[in-house]
Amino acid sequence: MREQLPLVPTAVILALGIGIAYWDVLRKLVLDWATDGDYSHGFLIVPLAGYFAWERRAKLASLPLSPSLYGLGLVIVGIAALTAGTLGVELFVARVSLLVVLAGCIVFLGGWAHLRVLAFPLTFLLLMIPIPAIVFNQIAFPLQLLASQIGEAGLRLIGVPVLRQGNVIVLANATLLVAEACSGIRSLVALLTVSIVYAYFAEPRKLVSAVLVMMTIPIALLTNGIRVAAIGIAAHAYGVAAAEGIFHTFSGWSIFVVALGLLVGLHWALLRLPFRTTSIPAV
């Protein structure tokens, strides 16, 4: 842009415009965080992303302002996606479009260099958006089967007679259904979020950070299967009532703590391997 617009007034106008355009989208998103246990961590994502952006304030201040009209193009693309998502009742598209609009505003106000600096905080915001239903339904049942298989293997390992039919585990005195809520998606998403934050603060090496984040998938799936096995043991020993209520809830929290312990233990082991000491660049 040949002439730079006043930064603060322009930013305020854009913020007001985004607030008006996305008011209903944001309201429904917060409602999902409050009512969907799989995404209750969404309340933490925005302040964390804000902190990550604030950490980059010195770098941002050192960059010259280089506004680009291409930013308006990104904003237009985002608004078009918002319109399509709203008309098509596809909340995921409408919600992701907010990040496109934010990226466009950054480019429009500061330039591409500013967007590169804020790329991580902006991408991190994706974790606040629930997985689209069509994707959730495609992965939930396979994860239910996997949890059932791991649970069955664990029960057989300690000598408990068990018969598995799909996601149904049949014991001598109880029948357990590994429901959608027990698929492990909740613990997977939560552990993935924690691992990203943990790696950001505790590990400056990019390769080690990437390994930690990727290993959250098998860790979450394994520990969820162990939880199913533990519930099966309780049902075998004390009846199906023992596997419900408080024990069911307590086992979920306990297994998540175990998963965190495995993640930290993995980091401890990786620290002793000869990885290259390339640090994450300060951006």
Query: Any idea what the shape is?
Result: elongated
The count of DSSP E runs of length 2 or more, i.e. the number of strands, is 3
Mean pLDDT: 86
Summed up, the helix count is 12
Q: How much helicity do the residues have? A: 55-70%
Report the structural category.
mainly alpha
End-to-end span in angstroms? 24 Å
Which segments are poorly predicted (pLDDT under 50) over 5 or more consecutive residues? 277-283
Helices and strands, with pairings:
Blueprint lengths: L6 H15 L1 H13 L6 H14 L1 H6 L7 H18 L3 H19 L2 H6 L1 H6 L8 H25 L5 E3 L2 E3 L4 E3 L7 H18 L3 H33 L7 H25 L13
Descriptive report:
The protein has helices at 7-21, 23-35, 42-55, 57-62, 70-87, 91-109, 112-117, 119-124, 133-157, 185-202, 206-238, 246-270; strands at 163-165, 168-170, 175-177. It has 283 residues and is mostly helical. It has two domains: 7-130, no CATH class; 134-270, no CATH class. It has a three-stranded antiparallel beta sheet with strand order 1-2-3, with helices on one face. α9 packs across α11 (206-238). It is elongated and about 75 Å long. Residues 277-283 have low confidence and may be disordered.
Comma- or semicolon-separated keywords:
283 residues; three-stranded antiparallel β-sheet; 12 helices; elongated; disordered C terminus
Short structural description:
With 283 residues, the chain is mainly alpha-helical. Helices cover 70% and strands 3% of the residues. The chain has 12 helices and 3 strands, in the order αααααααααβββααα.
